[in-house]
Write a sequence for this structure.
């Protein structure tokens, strides 16, 4: 006999059985009871939250034959209710818009909707993944959706309502399905285990529910997988093993090492976990989850229901949360999430992972970009670092050879998700005094360097001090500041990457009279002819004119340029670093090319400093 | 008596059947997420696919060196600018990108590249993989696996689990075309072979094939052969095929797939895009099939000029299985011509298409475009039957779609000669 998965066997059969969406179920019941039934509904929400189940229940309620009118309590036993439950009711048409995206499919639907239902009260169209319909298909649907025949009801379901045309949205009664709280999912899983005669620890079910991330279907699929292993009693340990999750205790210890700023211990503990065969991405997710729990404990108190940590004593967890500043936790989560994205695109995922752990462990040595830039705008020093991120993170565990914080301003609350900077100066900040930028602090013995730790935003936008670019004033930039002009050009061309890709092969050499001079090496002369075609030069001219606030021309020069970035001497010779910014990497691991690459790839601003300003990572301090 | 369906009804049946039948994609270069760097996806990979690189270098003034000096993202930017902004994106490869974007719910337009990048950045590979399989309506795809590639070899040896939607194929190009150089590589992996291909070496090659077929659970063994390939001859290729590949595949009842007709690196400056096509001698296919009636062969040829004789040869050799419109033939005009001709010569006993996708997302457009053409040809053919007085049924249409898109290949794998 074929096996029916749990998600189908235990699908909600009436409104009262819908889990986690009582606000919707009650509203729909009342609407049916009072006869205020709309002709089109839109159910929005992530997968597995009950959209299709509720749509089917609504269809049952509309057509249930136990009553002579729609009923909020469909019987579940009449032919209509059973046919809907099986998914083969002739008058309840379920359409997967993902595979019926075209206008022809919708025309066919409209054509068929004219005909009366075969046996039921209403013809109910359930259109799943409706956002996948093409624009023309949506448009074809508009008229029918606004004034459908009396016997037709539409229930549209989507996981991405923002992709549904506003004209469709305005014609539907919209219901937003929430992610189902983990504890409610766990409760349902418990009932299912009982009815399947399987024993299960609360912690185990909580783990399964968490893995479902708010989706009942995902959780049930997982439970199915676990049950298929033939176990008669589910424990948290077993589930961690089966799901390939790290032990909660191991993650706790890893985060403790991060909190203590102990780089060696941090890398050692992560290595130990990864040696069990776990992928770095899985571990990153586990650490994010743990940090999230600490954040909740820190901000909502230790009795918060939002914290779900199977397998760890709540008091121990609360003590650990006290060691972190909420701002630091929020930022660490952002950094780790960014890491996951970058690891997917990187061939040096492990190096990237290690570099990020080092970054988290050394967080006390970083300060925020916005603070730094504010300081610059106010005429302060560009070279600064201090325990801003980790106002309350203990620093006593720093290794002896770790560099001391360069400046120790009084601890301040950390910004929630600002990118952070370790130390910065160099060509990018090398403007004349009085122009708003500043000279490096002579008391500091660091080279002229720029290092940005984290940039959660997706775009490689180089933020400049407000004194150099004023975004409110249509980004008017001082024309004598070549670096600022060039960065502004890049920013302005974000939506025209094809032009920037050509420009990036050359370099901006300032203005000659009223012409911007852009130089290319002879081997790249081909890009000049390409820039001169299809109106690209005109677009560039316009962008440059907007940036400096007056009309300019463009001159492309082919000249002998070095083919490679000007090498920067070793750190410790700050004056020679002016040709390009220098990035100081954190102390700890040896600076291999892999690590250099991963540091560069880990942050848009580092990349910008290296690629656009000729910077180079030269040293781990 | 059953009433005869109208032409419009047949057309609808065919369209529905072809769209709703999930495909067994029998040749791709796709890999699951746990294969790490092997899994290629996203807009920058799509744009820097070698088809579009070749088109960009034709359509712009960029020199080869200048192009290759750019980063991948810069190349993608340039390709987008050249092919989608400066000119109408009319080529099949360009249209494919638009279809992918459209099917993903993104608005294709010249200013959209940034938005597309943001979209892809927000996708998780596992979930995205599911979405692509769903959008392309593919149930299983066949990878291309090279056991002599050190990093792929490591993956297999580590026992990495394989997503059941991905089947393996042992690709043996270096083994057939790389003598004597490949001997060094094989020795490095513990196989006692030497360049002269003596009895001992051939035994070791058979051991290599058998071990890796088993390890990968390969569904067939494959090679891409140049247009100049000759069978039989006195060279090492024939020797390895005759004395190692055919005995092992026969013993394991696996097909040996030959993709014939490439001319490698006619323009090395184009790198991966530098390969071309030439007409091959169909006699080679005829001879290898005739000489080895106990072996199963899958063949696709790259030159349009080879297609008719290949279909005729397939009529004569039951152990020869035709598949797909490969590489430069994967264009609507040629797919339609070939599918029509094959159907007229072979009925339903072939596989009209494979995606050959290297970038995951390509699977979406390759199947969307091919399905439309296959449906068009099938509609004509069923209407021809109706005109001839045959009563076409929905059931028959569905069965035909299943045969062409999934069952024929699965059945050929199972077939014992």
């Amino acid at each position: 006999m074929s096996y029916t998965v749990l998600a189908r066997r235990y699908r909600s059969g009436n409104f009262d059985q819908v889990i986690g969406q009582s606000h919707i179920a009650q509203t729909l019941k009342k609407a049916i009871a009072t006869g205020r039934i709309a002709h089109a509904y839109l159910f929005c929400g992530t997968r597995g939250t009950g959209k299709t189940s509720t749509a089917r229940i609504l269809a049952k309620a509309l057509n249930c034959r136990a009553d002579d009118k729609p009923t909020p309590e469909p019987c579940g036993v009449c032919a209509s209710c059973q046919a809907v439950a099986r998914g083969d009711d002739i008058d309840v048409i379920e359409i997967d818009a993902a595979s019926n995206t075209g206008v022809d499919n919708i025309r066919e639907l409209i054509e068929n909707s004219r005909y009366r239902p075969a046996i039921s009260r209403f013809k109910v169209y359930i259109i799943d993944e409706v956002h996948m319909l093409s624009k023309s298909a949506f448009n074809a649907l508009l008229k029918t959706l606004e004034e459908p025949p009396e016997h037709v009801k539409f229930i549209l379901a989507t996981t991405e309502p923002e992709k549904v045309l506003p004209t469709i949205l305005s014609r539907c009664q919209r219901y937003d399905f929430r992610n189902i709280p983990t504890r409610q999912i766990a409760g349902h899983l418990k009932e299912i285990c009982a009815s399947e005669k399987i024993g299960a620890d609360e912690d185990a079910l909580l783990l399964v529910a968490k893995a479902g991330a708010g989706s009942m279907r995902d959780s049930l699929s997982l439970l199915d997988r676990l049950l298929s292993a033939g176990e008669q009693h589910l424990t948290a340990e077993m589930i961690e093993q089966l799901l390939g999750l790290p032990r909660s205790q191991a993650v706790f210890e890893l985060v403790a090492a991060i909190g203590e700023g102990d780089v060696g211990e941090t890398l050692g503990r992560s290595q130990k976990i990864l040696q069990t065969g776990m992928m770095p991405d899985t571990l990153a997710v586990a650490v994010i989850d743990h940090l999230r729990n600490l954040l909740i404990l820190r901000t909502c108190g230790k009795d918060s229901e939002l914290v779900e940590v199977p397998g760890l004593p709540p008091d121990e967890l609360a003590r650990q949360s006290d060691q972190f500043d909420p701002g630091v936790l929020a930022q660490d989560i952002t950094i780790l999430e960014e890491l996951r994205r970058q690891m997917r695109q990187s061939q040096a995922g492990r190096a990237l992972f290690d570099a990020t752990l080092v970054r988290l462990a050394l967080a006390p040595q970083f300060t925020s970009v916005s603070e730094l830039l504010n300081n610059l705008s106010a005429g302060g020093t560009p070279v600064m670092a201090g325990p801003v991120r980790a106002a309350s993170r203990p620093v006593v565990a720093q290794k002896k050879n770790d560099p001391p914080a360069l400046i120790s301003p009084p601890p301040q609350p950390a910004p929630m998700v600002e990118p952070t900077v370790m130390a910065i100066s160099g060509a990018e900040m090398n403007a004349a005094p009085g122009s708003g930028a500043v000279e490096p602090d002579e008391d500091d013995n660091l080279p002229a360097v720029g290092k940005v730790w984290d940039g959660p935003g997706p775009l490689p936008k180089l933020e400049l001090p407000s004194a150099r670019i004023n975004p409110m004033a249509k980004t008017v930039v001082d024309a004598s500041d070549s670096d600022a002009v060039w960065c502004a050009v890049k920013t302005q061309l974000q939506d025209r990457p094809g032009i920037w890709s050509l420009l990036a092969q050359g370099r901006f050499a300032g203005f000659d009279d009223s012409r911007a001079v852009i130089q290319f090496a002879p081997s790249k002369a081909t890009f000049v002819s390409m820039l001169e075609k299809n109106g690209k030069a005109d677009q560039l001219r316009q962008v440059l004119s907007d940036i400096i606030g007056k009309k300019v021309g463009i001159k492309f020069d082919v000249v002998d340029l070095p083919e490679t970035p000007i090498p920067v001497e070793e750190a410790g010779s700050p004056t020679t670093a002016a040709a390009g910014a220098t990035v100081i990497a954190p102390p700890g691991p040896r600076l291999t090319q892999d690590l250099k690459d991963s540091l560069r790839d880990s942050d848009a601003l580092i990349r910008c400093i290296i690629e656009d300003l000729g910077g180079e990572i030269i040293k781990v301090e | 008596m059953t009433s005869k369906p109208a032409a419009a009804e047949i057309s609808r049946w065919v369209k529905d059947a072809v769209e709703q039948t999930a495909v067994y994609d029998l040749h791709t270069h796709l890999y699951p997420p746990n294969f790490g760097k092997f899994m290629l996806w996203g807009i920058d990979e799509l744009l820097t696919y070698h088809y579009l690189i070749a088109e960009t270098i034709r359509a712009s003034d960029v020199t080869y060196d200048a192009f290759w000096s750019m980063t991948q993202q810069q190349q993608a930017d340039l390709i987008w600018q050249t092919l989608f902004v400066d000119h109408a994106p009319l080529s099949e490869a360009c249209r494919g990108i638009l279809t992918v974007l459209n099917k993903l719910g993104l608005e294709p337009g010249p200013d959209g590249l940034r938005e597309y990048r943001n979209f892809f950045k927000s996708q998780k590979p596992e979930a995205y993989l599911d979405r692509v399989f769903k959008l392309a309506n593919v149930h299983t795809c066949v990878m291309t696996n090279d056991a002599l590639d050190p990093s792929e070899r490591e993956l297999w040896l580590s026992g990495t689990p394989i997503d059941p939607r991905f089947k393996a194929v042992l690709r043996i190009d270096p083994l057939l075309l790389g003598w004597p150089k490949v001997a060094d590589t094989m020795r490095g992996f513990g196989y006692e072979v030497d360049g002269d291909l003596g009895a001992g070496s051939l035994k070791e090659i058979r051991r290599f094939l058998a071990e890796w077929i088993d390890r990968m659970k390969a569904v067939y063994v494959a090679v891409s052969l140049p247009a100049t390939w000759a069978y039989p001859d006195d060279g090492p290729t024939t020797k390895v095929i005759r004395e190692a590949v055919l005995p092992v595949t026969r013993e394991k009842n696996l097909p040996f797939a030959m993709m014939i007709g490439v001319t490698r690196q006619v323009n090395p400056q184009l790198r991966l895009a530098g390969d071309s096509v030439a007409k091959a001698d169909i006699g080679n296919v005829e001879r290898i099939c005739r000489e080895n009636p106990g072996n199963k062969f899958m063949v696709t040829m790259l030159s349009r000029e080879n297609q008719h004789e290949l279909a005729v040869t397939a009529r004569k050799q039951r152990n020869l299985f035709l598949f797909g419109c490969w590489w430069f033939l994967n264009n609507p005009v040629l797919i339609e011509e070939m599918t029509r001709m094959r159907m007229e010569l072979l009925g339903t006993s072939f596989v009209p298409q494979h995606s050959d996708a290297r970038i995951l997302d390509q699977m979406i457009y390759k199947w969307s475009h091919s399905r439309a053409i296959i449906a068009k040809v099938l509609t004509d053919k069923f209407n021809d039957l109706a005109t001839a007085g045959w009563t076409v049924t929905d059931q028959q249409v569905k069965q035909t779609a299943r045969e062409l898109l999934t069952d024929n290949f699965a059945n050929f794998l199972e077939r014992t000669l």
